[in-house]
Structures are given as structure tokens and as C-alpha cells.
Write a structure and sequence with these properties.
The complex is a heterodimer of chains A (382) and B (664).
Chain A (H helix, E strand, L loop, with lengths): L17 H14 L5 H10 L6 H26 L1 H14 L6 H15 L5 H18 L4 H15 L9 H30 L7 E6 L3 H12 L4 E6 L6 H11 L4 E4 L4 H4 L5 E4 L3 E2 L5 E4 L2 H10 L4 E4 L40 E4 L6 E4 L2 E3 L1 H12 L1
Parallel strand pairs in A: 1-2, 1-4, 2-3, 4-7, 7-9
Antiparallel strand pairs in A: 5-6, 6-8, 9-10
Helix pairs in contact in A: 3-4, 4-5, 4-6, 5-6, 5-7, 5-8, 6-7, 7-8, 8-9
Chain B lengths: L1 H5 L19 H5 L7 H6 L4 H4 L2 H4 L13 H10 L7 H18 L16 H25 L9 H4 L3 H9 L7 H15 L3 H9 L4 H19 L4 H15 L15 H16 L10 H9 L26 H7 L9 H12 L5 H17 L9 H19 L4 H15 L7 H32 L6 E6 L3 H12 L4 E7 L6 H10 L3 E6 L3 H4 L5 E5 L2 E3 L4 E4 L2 H10 L4 E4 L5 E2 L15 H5 L8 H8 L11 E4 L6 E4 L2 E3 L4 H14 L1
Parallel strand pairs in B: 1-2, 1-4, 2-3, 4-7, 5-8, 7-10
Antiparallel strand pairs in B: 5-6, 6-9, 10-11
The chains are: A alpha/beta (382), B alpha/beta (664).
Main location (chain A): cytoplasm
Pfam families (chain A): IF-2B
GO molecular function (chain A): guanyl-nucleotide exchange factor activity; translation initiation factor activity
Chain lengths: 382, 664
């Protein structure tokens, strides 16, 4: 059902299915007669607003996925063990509703299960190696890294290591791994339940990016017969907003699609802003799809609450000081026209939103203020 | 309390005091002045007060003297002349008596400088004395036999015949052999016990043993007997000291409640102490005259208060510079109360030879290490209690030399905690070894390794081509810059400095010799130079629970300008400097430096006219603040040994850290 998560880099595999979706959404652009002449001429001149940019973007993303596949296959050739892990990971990842961090957790649990280690130490080393392979498989994905770290932390920080019998210790580790996977799976439900108190009848919600958690929240709210309206940003270049709006319209939620640049224009009528997150960093800020920061800034300056829905396995021990302070996640961006070689293109896929622009974080640990994130992380890692 | 206080009118000897612009209240003027420190006087009998026949002023008193254990002095004198001497020793005793009086009667004993060690809670006081009483009743003969000339830490030669009396005086609750003794002891008991009798009993009942309860009863009986007698407290005090004098038993005030034998007792005391430790100590307010006087009386260092102080900062100590040092260093070989290593560190602090929080803290801890190595538990004393008292004495000496930094406070708290946690069954040498290794571990783990961890973390935030701005001198920042340079990062450093300390020059010198690309400027140019900077690295003296940064004055300015230019501000601070207190402004807690440093401008020619305006102008006050506080919103990140954390997470670290602290 879900083709794209906000961390689109990882989900490139499913992108092959998305062109039809893009085709369906192409309609409104072309058919609407109310496009002002100004924009029509502008589109004609610059070719920026064209109907086929989505398809091109998808094609470009597909190209990247090919690269990554070859890269990962290199990895697979390198070590046999990593082959297993990534295979497992990819198997899990094919399940549509599973976030990649959960997939990673499942894969690591499978590593424990399949392990032939005879001592605890060996098992731990094996686990560590597997998680390292997973992490190096995609360094740009924050939730994958954070999920692996958290899993290792959660699994090994038990009394399991004190068991005399290796098998019972191992089974205890497995138990814990299963439990962690389960918690992670349930996280989305928990967050959806927690957030219901914040959605009131007649409110207008601005959503940026395509987050499964946010969708779950909206879905739950609709099931609870709340009356609300959703504004979706378009989410260039992947058209995440377009996908989200089509999903929402299936649920009979009134939805309106905005250009990314129309956020400030329509912020007046917005009551709250919802984001998903690629990663929640130690300062309490979030790393999310490009455009989040500016929307948060606009919302902050207009005193609109900004809510972030993120599962706790996305909490990462990172502390970016500014936008450039992260490992860049680059992606190709197609403008639909030929860009002169001398023109540089900003290809970063995500940005960092500092905590002072966020109001609350909805996590499966509860509704947190941004500063609590660091507390949770400290308690977990220290 | 106040009415009682009135009764202690003491003949006026001579009025010396704080000569700030505010007139001293009559109350303080009534008391004889003790601005000069005991040991100093005791040794240099040329001091004006030591000649005053203090023994005649009031009935000579002998009660627990100083917290500095300068008793040895008295001991020596006493040994020479077995009869009560009205010499310096007597004077000291007199001082001590007055001090103890103040302690019993003053309105807030727990707030005294070193609140943790004074007998602050009445319950504890009586409990201790009562149990001690029990202890001594059973052991006194044995002890007097077994310690013919070492029973107490001092003055044994004189005391042998009256050994048992001494003990009684110590316990301050006598069995009532002699009337006078009973009277005094009872009285002193009554001072503390009477008002809160019921409360105490309730509190005590659950944790006292039968013997202890009996001891309490007896003490109460004695108190009743004493109450019958006439009772101005003045008389009481002098009386109470009398037997002490007869036996020549000067004893530190805190040791009046020495350790008890029973373990349960000890744990109870420990629990109490722990409770008290949880409450952050109040800072000494130097505009609170009575308490300042009190503190002055015990002072080792003879500090003269500056005359011309800024109104807003009257509560902070400000002393004239440069006059204490020769005096102190001449005392180096004569002063036994303070261990020479501690003394040395104190002098270095005073002279400003050691600067920088880490250096000061390490120096202090190493001095303590040495002092502990040389420490010998006096017979009949418990290492835990006696050593704590000793450390307290050292600490108050260090405070006199220069106010402690927050980090030093934390380190001292750690040390006291370790002492308190010593297993009872440990032998003295083992205890000493364990304490020394604990201190060494603290230095290694919390300071040296922490710095290394900070460097590792902070270096990840330095990218090629950056311009790093730093202010003043911080050794951690220096280490970060040097390490980043070492691993081949290409960056430029802007060093911002300010008068009067010009610490940045030291940093500049070190960086330039290592080949870093540096720019040096003064803080006046900060808004200009900030445009270039991409990161600001700051050191810290302390960080408080609310994220407020307490650092060298000028830091707040840097952080605010950086914030205005949206340059991230990174504060590098070891976790042992985090403090659980909350700081809102830089007025309440600060340190005043030498005002002359502000007044004297190097290039300014000191002609007669200039110096005249400077020195004789009542309307001109110089303020040389040492620290300021930066609100947390101007700090982007704190790099500590626990990693990179936002300023909002300080309380979490403090909580976790303290827990670890206790476990350590």
C-alpha cells in the first residue's frame, strides 16, 4: 500500500510501482482551468510546471536504486554473514507496512536465531557485526542506524548475559528481540491513539511529507468521526503530498493540495502542523524531508503548534548544529528542463529542524516536549 | 533567640570590623572583634589583640576552638606551662568559646559556612552527645588508663589527672560528679534539647537503643538540674568552658559530638548527614554582618575587606590584595593546623599562581591526598568524623584564600562522601589508601579522561574551512583546537580576549607555536569578528541545572552576539562541573577580583592627578567581576564527557551523575 516513506532513499525499491500513481495525480494539474494565465505562461516559458516531472523524478530515483543494489551486492559478495543479514532485512522490508528500522530489528533478531555461536561473547560480536553491515549498507538512513543501535542496546543490556546456560541466555535474547520488534510494530498504533486528543473538530491540519505515522494518526482520527481538513504540501520532487492526498481522499477526508511554496500563504487557516520524522536527534530537533524546516519556521512565526509523530526507534544519538552538519543524503532532482552545467543544484534530501520550532513530539513513549528526547537518550545510552 | 542573644553582651575590647559604607549594627559592635585569625595571633604575639588580657575580660573560657585544629599551638603552650595561661592560648580559647556560643545561639546554625559539618540539627546534636555520654561512661577509665599521654589529640601532659573530667566536658552532658560541671553540661544540653525535647524524642525513639535512651534521660535530668540554677547564657557559656580550662582541653567545636561506637548510631548520623547534603548549601552572604564576623573569627588568612565596594555586590567577599601573602607565607612553618600541602595550594590560589578551574581543582585534590596520607587519627576519635572535620578546616582555609569554584565544591562533596562511605571495619591505613586512590580516580576519570572524551566529541563538530571563535583561555578548548589541528583539520581560530586578565594571550601563544592560524582581538570587536566565525567554543566554570552557564566574565556577551549572528555556541564542560543549583543572574553568586586590576591601565601614565582621583574618591568604585551567567537559550550544545547534550539535559546528567557518585 505504501510506496514511499519519508526516508525515500531506502524505499527506492517500491518506487517502481509509483508511476501509475503519478499518472492518476497528474490530472488535477492539467485539467484545472483555473490556473492563472501568469502561471501558464510561466510554465510555458520555463517548463518548470510540467506534467511529467513526477515520472522523471521516479525514473531518476530508480536509477539510484540500481546503484545501491549493486553496492549492496558488493557487500554481499564481501562476507557471507552480511549477505544473510541484508537478505533478511530486504525480505522484511518488502512487507508494506514495516518501517525499515523495524525490518532491521527483525533481521537482527533473525541473526540471533540463526547464529551458531556457542558463547555469549561470540553471539554479541556476531550481532554487532551484523548491525554494522546493516548500518553501512545505508549510511544515510538515520532510523536504520538508530534502530540497530537501540536494538543492540536493548537486547544486550539485560541480565541475559548472566545466565549460566548459553541456550537459555540466547532464548532470552531472542525473547527480548521479539518483544522489541513487537513494541516497534505497535508504536504507530500507540502514537495514533495518543495524538487523538490533539485533533479537534473543525481543525485544519497541514501535513508535509509522507509519513506512515501521520497517516495512521489521520486515519484513526477519521475513524473516530472527527471532522477535520487536511492541507497537503506537494512535496517536490517525489510528490509525497500527492500520494498522501490521494490516500486521504480514499478515506473521505477533505484534503487540499498546496505547492510547497504556498505554505506561508495558507498558514493562516491552519490550526496545527504535523510532521513525520526520519530521525529525532539528541537536541530534540528532527531530521526530516526537505522543507520541514521552513514550514516549521513559518508555523512558529505564526504561532501555530508543530507536532511531530515519530516512533522511539528513530531517536538517534546525533547532534547536528546546523543544516550542513549531517551526512548529506543526496538525491537527483529533475527540473524537467535541461539545466546548464554551470548551475549547481541543491540535492540534499532532508533538513534539520531545531527543537525550538517544535511544539510536541508524539512518540510511543508518550507525548514529549523536545527536551525530553535527550533525557530518554541519555538514560538509554549512559 | 534574640532576647537570649542580648544577654551575651561582652565587654567591648576594640572595635574592628567591616568598614564598608554601611554602619555596623549595634549588636555586632558590642561583640569583641575577632577579625584576626587565631593561629596567626597565637604564633605572632605581636598582634595587638593577643596582648589584651583577654583572660580577664570574661571568665576565661576553654571551649572547642577552631575548626582548623590549630589546637596544637595551644597544646604546645599549655604543655610548657601547666597552669592556665592567659597568653595567646587563653586568647584562643576565648575566641573559641565565643564562637561556640555564637553557634549554639545563632539563628541559623545550619547555614554556617560549612553547613555539613556543624551540629546543625538539634536532634542530631543531642543524640550524639547522649550516646557519646553513654560510651564514655563505660570506657572512660579504661581509656584513661590506656592512653596515658595520648588520650586526646592534645594537651595530655597537663591533663592526665583530670582525664575523666575532660571527657565529661567533651560530652557536654555530665554525670554530675561536680556541681559546676553538671551545671554547665546540663546547661549546654538544655540549650539544644529543651525547646525540641518532644520532637527529638519522637525522632530518636525509633532508632535509639536502650542504652542510648537511658543516656538521653540522664542528659535531660542534668539539663533540668541546670535549669534550676540561674541562667544567663553568658554565665552559662563561661561556666561551661571552665572545666575545660581547668583540664586544658581545647577541642574543635565539631568534635564535641564525636563519634559513637555503635554502628546503628553511625548509620543514623550518616543518614542525617546525607539528608543535609541533599540540601544545597547556602552561600555565605558577606553583607550579613553577624555571619561574616563569625567567619572572620575563625579565619586563618587575614583578609582586609575592601573599603569601597559596589553596592550591588556587597554580599560577595572583596579583599584588599597583596597584603596577606607575605604574612601567610611567613607562617608557613609555624602553622600546624593546616597541612602544608593544603597551605601551599591556598597560597597559590591567593596569589593567583594557579588559575583555571581544572588546575585549581586538581591542585586542591592532590593537596588533600597528601594531607590524608599524612593524617593520623587521634586516639579515641573516629577517622570518618575527624577527617571530615579536618577537611572542613582545610576547605574553609581555601575559601578564605579564594572562594571555591563550583567544581571544587563538587570535588569536595565527592571526597566527603567517600570518607562517609568508608566501611567501619577498615583499618586506618587501608582507609587512607582507599581514600587516596579514590581521589586519584576522581582526578583521572572526572577531569583528565573527561577532557579526552570531550575532545573526541567536540572534534567531530569541526569541519574543514571553519572559523572557530573562542574566548579567554580554557584548557579543554585548547586541547580541542590542538587535537583538531593534529588530525589535519583545516580551520582558523579567532581568539577573543578581554582585560584585565588577558588570558587569551596564553592560548594565542600556545596555538601559534603549534602552527595554527590565529586571529587575536579584544572583546570590543566581537560584533565585527563574529561575522567570520562559524562556531564558538567556550569553556565553563560551571553549568547549573537550568542550563545556565557560569563562566569567565564576558562569556555571556560572546554567546549572545553569537546567537544574534546565529553562530552555534558550543560549551565544553566536564560533567563534574555540573551543579544542581539554579542560577538566574550573575549577581547572587559571583566572585570579585582585584579592583585595582580594572583601575590600572597599563598604558595609562600614572600621574599624580590620576592616582588621586582613583584612590581618594568615595564616589568611585571599581568592580572587577570574575564570572557571569549565560542563559541556556544562547547555548546550542554542551559537550561533556557524557557526549553532546542540549543545555536542557543538564538536570538529567546531574541526577545520573550523582547516583554514580554515590555508587563510586
Amino acid at each position: 500500500m505504501w510506496r514511499r516513506s519519508p526516508s525515500f532513499i531506502l524505499d527506492e525499491r517500491r518506487s517502481s510501482n509509483s508511476p501509475p500513481m503519478a499518472d492518476t495525480t497528474r490530472g488535477p494539474f492539467q485539467n484545472s482551468d483555473s490556473i492563472s494565465a501568469y502561471y501558464q505562461t510561466r510554465a510555458a516559458h520555463h517548463g518548470v510546471i510540467t506534467s511529467d516531472w513526477l515520472a522523471q523524478a521516479q525514473a531518476a530515483v530508480g536509477g539510484v536504486s540500481g546503484e545501491e543494489q549493486s553496492l549492496s551486492s558488493d557487500n554481499q559478495l564481501g562476507t557471507e554473514k552480511s549477505f544473510n543479514v541484508i537478505e533478511e532485512f530486504n525480505n522484511w522490508r518488502k512487507q508494506p507496512d514495516l518501517a525499515e528500522a523495524v525490518a532491521a530489528i527483525r533481521a537482527l533478531a533473525a541473526v540471533i536465531r540463526a547464529s551458531e555461536a556457542s558463547t555469549m561473547m561470540e553471539l554479541e560480536i556476531e550481532l554487532k557485526k551484523a548491525s554494522d553491515t546493516l548500518k553501512s549498507w545505508d549510511k544515510t538512513s538515520i532510523s536504520l542506524t538508530a534502530g540497530c543501535d537501540l536494538f543492540i542496546r536493548y537486547v544486550t543490556r539485560t541480565s541475559a548475559l548472566e545466565y549460566e546456560d548459553f541456550n537459555s541466555a540466547k532464548s532470552r535474547l531472542l525473547e527480548r528481540a521479539e518483544k522489541f520488534g513487537e513494541i516497534s510494530c505497535k508504536a504507530r498504533r500507540i502514537i495514533a491513539m495518543l495524538s487523538q486528543d490533539f485533533i479537534f473538530d473543525g481543525c485544519t491540519i497541514l501535513v508535509h511529507g509522507l509519513s506512515r505515522v501521520v497517516l495512521e494518526i489521520l486515519k484513526t482520527a477519521a475513524q473516530n468521526n472527527k471532522l477535520f481538513r487536511v492541507l497537503c504540501t506537494e512535496g517536490r520532487p517525489d510528490g509525497t503530498g500527492v500520494l498522501l492526498s490521494s490516500e486521504l481522499s480514499k478515506l473521505d477526508i477533505p484534503v487540499k493540495l498546496l505547492l510547497d511554496s504556498a505554505v506561508a500563504y495558507s498558514m493562516d487557516e491552519v490550526d496545527m502542523v504535523f510532521f513525520g520524522a526520519d530521525g529525532v536527534v539528541e537536541s530534540g530537533g528532527i531530521i526530516n524531508m526537505m522543507g520541514t524546516y521552513q514550514i516549521a519556521l513559518v508555523a512558529h512565526s505564526m504561532n501555530k503548534p508543530v507536532y511531530v509523530a515519530a516512533e522511539s526507534y528513530k531517536f538517534a544519538r546525533l547532534y547536528p548544529l546546523d543544516q550542513k552538519d549531517m551526512a548529506p543524503a543526496l538525491r537527483p532532482i529533475e527540473f524537467g528542463v535541461k539545466i546548464p552545467t554551470k548551475v549547481e543544484v541543491e540535492r540534499s534530501a532532508r533538513d534539520y529542524t531545531p527543537p525550538q520550532y517544535l511544539t510536541l513530539l508524539f512518540t510511543d513513549l508518550g507525548v514529549l516536549s523536545p527536551s525530553v528526547v535527550s533525557d530518554e537518550l541519555i538514560q538509554l545510552y549512559l | 533567640m534574640d532576647t537570649r542573644r542580648g544577654a551575651l553582651a561582652v565587654p567591648k575590647v576594640r572595635r574592628v570590623g567591616f568598614f564598608t559604607s554601611i554602619e555596623p549594627p549595634p549588636e555586632s559592635s558590642q561583640r569583641p572583634n575577632r577579625s584576626q585569625s587565631g593561629p596567626v595571633e597565637a604564633t605572632t604575639s605581636s598582634s595587638p589583640l593577643s596582648n589584651s588580657p583577654s583572660g580577664n575580660l570574661i571568665s576565661p573560657v576553654l571551649i572547642p576552638p577552631s575548626r582548623h585544629h590549630s589546637d596544637n599551638l595551644t597544646t604546645r603552650v599549655a604543655a610548657a606551662a601547666p597552669v592556665p595561661v592567659p597568653g595567646p592560648a587563653a586568647f584562643r580559647r576565648y575566641l573559641a568559646q565565643d564562637r561556640s556560643l555564637l553557634h549554639v545561639g545563632s539563628y541559623n546554625p545550619p547555614d554556617s559556612l560549612l553547613g555539613t559539618s556543624t551540629p546543625s540539627s538539634n536532634g542530631e546534636f543531642s543524640e550524639d552527645s547522649a550516646s557519646l555520654f553513654g560510651f564514655q561512661r563505660s570506657d572512660s577509665t579504661k581509656l584513661s588508663a590506656s592512653f596515658p599521654n595520648g588520650g586526646f589529640d592534645l594537651t595530655l601532659a597537663v591533663r592526665a589527672p583530670q582525664e575523666s573530667e575532660t571527657k565529661i566536658a567533651t560530652a557536654s552532658a555530665s554525670e554530675g560528679k561536680k556541681k559546676i560541671k553538671e551545671y554547665l553540661a546540663g546547661k549546654s544540653e538544655s540549650v539544644t534539647t529543651k525547646p525540641q525535647k518532644e520532637k527529638e524524642q519522637k525522632a530518636l525513639k525509633d532508632k535509639t537503643t536502650k542504652a542510648e535512651r537511658r543516656a538521653i534521660q540522664e542528659a535531660q535530668r542534668a539539663a533540668k538540674a541546670a535549669a534550676k540554677g540561674e541562667g544567663s547564657r553568658r554565665a552559662d557559656e563561661s561556666g561551661r568552658a571552665n572545666p575545660g580550662k581547668a583540664t586544658k582541653k581545647p577541642q574543635p567545636k565539631k568534635e564535641r559530638l564525636p563519634v559513637t561506637s555503635s554502628v546503628s548510631e553511625k548509620t543514623a548520623v550518616a543518614v542525617e548527614k546525607e539528608k543535609r547534603m541533599d540540601v544545597p548549601q547556602t552561600l555565605m552572604q558577606y553583607d550579613d554582618r553577624s555571619r561574616v564576623d563569625k567567619a572572620k573569627r575563625r579565619a586563618v588568612v587575614e583578609q582586609t575587606e575592601s573599603k569601597n565596594k559596589v553596592e550591588l555586590f556587597l554580599h560577595l567577599p572583596q579583599y584588599e590584595r597583596g597584603n596577606q601573602l607575605p604574612n601567610l607565607s611567613s607562617n608557613f612553618f609555624t602553622l600546624d593546623s593546616i597541612h602544608h600541602a593544603v597551605y601551599k595550594v591556598g597560597l597559590q590560589h591567593l596569589a593567583g599562581d594557579i588559575s583555571g578551574d581544572n588546575a585549581r581543582c586538581i591542585a586542591m585534590l592532590q593537596a588533600f591526598q597528601e594531607a590524608i596520607e599524612d593524617y593520623i587519627t587521634p586516639p579515641m576519635k573516629d577517622l570518618t568524623m575527624d577527617l571530615t572535620t579536618k577537611i572542613n578546616g582545610y576547605v574553609s582555609f581555601l575559601i578564605e584564600c579564594r572562594p571555591l569554584s563550583m567544581s571544587m565544591g563538587n570535588a569536595i562533596r565527592f571526597l566527603k562522601n567517600q570518607i562517609r562511605k568508608l566501611p567501619v571495619n577498615l583499618s586506618e591505613s587501608e582507609a587512607k589508601i582507599s581514600l587516596c586512590s579514590d581521589i586519584g580516580r576522581f582526578i583521572d576519570e572526572k577531569i583528565i579522561l573527561a577532557d579526552k572524551a570531550i575532545v573526541q566529541h567536540a572534534v567531530t563538530k569541526i569541519r574543514d574551512g571553519e572559523v572557530l571563535l573562542t574566548y579567554g583561555f580554557s584548557c579543554v578548548v585548547e586541547m580541542i583546537l590542538l587535537y583538531a589541528h593534529e588530525i589535519g583539520k583545516k580551520f582558523r581560530v579567532v581568539i577573543v580576549d578581554s582585560r584585565p586578565n588577558l588570558e587569551g594571550q596564553k592560548l594565542l601563544r600556545r596555538l601559534v607555536t603549534r602552527g595554527l592560524d590565529c586571529t587575536y582581538t579584544h572583546i570590543n570587536a566581537i560584533s565585527y569578528i563574529m561575522r567570520e566565525a562559524t562556531r564558538v567554543f567556550l569553556g565553563a566554570s560551571s553549568i547549573f541545572s537550568n542550563g545556565t552557564l557560569y563562566a569567565r566574565v564576558g562569556t555571556a556577551c560572546i554567546a549572545m552576539v553569537a546567537n544574534a549572528f546565529s553562530v552555534p555556541v558550543i560549551v565544553c564542560c566536564e560533567a563534574y562541573k555540573f551543579h544542581e543549583r539554579v542560577l538566574l543572574d550573575s549577581i547572587c553568586s559571583n566572585e570579585l577580583g582585584d579592583p585595582d586590576a580594572v583601575a590600572n591601565i597599563p598604558s595609562f601614565r600614572t600621574n599624580a592627578k590620576h592616582s588621586k582621583t582613583i584612590n581618594n574618591n568615595k564616589n568611585l568604585q571599581f568592580l572587577n567581576l570574575m564570572y557571569d551567567s549565560t542563559p541556556s537559550e544562547y547555548i546550542s550544545m554542551i559537550v561533556s564527557d557524557y557526549g553532546m547534550i542540549p543545555p536542557t539535559s543538564i538536570p538529567v546528567i546531574v541526577r545520573e551523575y550523582r547516583r554514580e557518585h554515590l555508587l563510586l
